[in-house]
Amino acid sequence: MALSCFNLCSHLSLTRLCGLRTNRISNGLYFPYGSCQSRLPLCRHYSSSKVRRGIGRYVASSLQRVNTKYEGFLKRRFPRFYQLYHTFTEGFKLLFRDAKDVQRIKAKMFSDGVQFKDLPYREMEKLRQFRRDMIKAVPLVVISIPPFANYLVFVLMYFFPRQLLIPHFWTRQQKEEFQGLYHSLRAQHHWSVLKGLESTSQQVKDGQLQRRLKDLCATVQSGAIPKVSEILAVRSLFSGPPLGIKRMSVDQMRLVSPLLFLTPHLPGFLIGRRLNNHGLVLLQLDRALSRLGPHQLSDSELRKACYVRGLHSNSLGINQYREWLSQWLQVSSSLKDSEVSLLLHSIVFLSANYPKGASRHGQEA
C-alpha cells in the first residue's frame, strides 16, 4: 500500500512538473498503466529546447546577479580598482560592438560589391578607426588570453594607459588629456614642415610657382591663415616633383609622418607607402563627408573629424569647428588622388594658426 502511494505521488509530481494534460480514462490522474501513446508527449515535452533555454536563462541571470554583487563589493571597498575594472569591462563591450559593426560593413561590401571609397562617411570612418585600433590592441588581447592574465592588464592600464591601450579603455578624463598631448606632439612638427618646404622650393624651376610656395610658407609663419586659392595655386608642385607623394624627399616624408600620427622611424619606401595610403583614405573620407554634408555631423563627430585633420582646441566653439571643416573641404574637394601630398601639407597650412590667424585672414580677404 505504501509502495503504491509512493509510485502514485511520484507520477503526479512528474505530471505537474511537465504541465501536461492528465489521462482522461483514469479520472484525471496519469497512471503508469496508460498506453504508450499517452506517454510520448511527456518525453517530447521534457526534452524540448524550451527546457534548455530556460536553464540557460536561469544560469545567465544567476551569473549576472553574482557579477552585480561583485561589482558592488569592489565599488564600496576598492573604488580605484573598481574604476579600472569598470573601464576594462566597458572597453571590451565597446570593442566587441565595433567588431560586430565592422563585420556587418564588410559583409555588405562583399555581398553588394561595394568598394571602400563608395561607403557612407560613418561606415568609412568606422573601418578606418577600427583598423588603427586593432593594430594597437592586438598585444593587449594576446596578453589577456591566459588565465588570470587580466590582472596584468589592469597593471598595464594603470601605469601605461596612453602607450598600450586604445581609446576604448581610456576614461573620459584620459581621452581629453591624451588627445591634447598627441596634438601638441603633432603641432611641434608644423614649423619643421614649413622649413622643409622652403628648402624644397629652391628646386622649383618655375619662378612663379617658386614665389607662390615661398609666399604660402611666409603667410603661415607670420601667424595668418592662407586662403584656399593660395593653397590651390601651388597644387601642381604636389602632384609631381619635388613634392608629389611619390617624389618627395625622404627627409620631408619623415617631417610629414607625425602629422598623421605615423612613426618616422622606418625605411623611406615604407614611409612613402604609408603616407600615400593614409592620405588617400583621408581624401576618400572627405569626399564621403561632402556627400553627407558636414551639417549632418553631431558635435562629437565634428570634433573628431577636425582632430583627424589637424585641429584641436578646447577653447573652440562648435561654429568655429564647422567653419574650419568647411574650409578644409573646399581644399580637398578640388584635389585629385595624385595631389594627396597637398592635402597632407594642408594640415599645417590650415590648422597651425587657427583660430588666432582667422581674424587676420578675414581682414585680408
Question: What's this model, at a glance?
Answer:
The chain has helices at residues 2-18, 36-46, 49-77, 79-112, 121-143, 150-159, 161-164, 172-187, 190-200, 207-221, 228-232, 250-256, 268-292, 299-308, 318-332, 340-351, 358-364. The chain has 365 residues and is an all-alpha fold.
Explain what you see.
The structure is a single chain. Residues 1-46 have low confidence and may be disordered. This protein has helices at residues 2-18, 36-46, 49-77, 79-112, 121-143, 150-159, 161-164, 172-187, 190-200, 207-221, 228-232, 250-256, 268-292, 299-308, 318-332, 340-351, 358-364. It contains 17 helices and no strands. The longest helix has 34 residues, at 79-112. 69% of the residues lie in helices and 0% in strands. With 365 residues, the chain is mainly alpha-helical.
Task: Describe this protein with a few key phrases.
single chain; 365 residues; mainly alpha; 17 helices; 69% helix; disordered N terminus
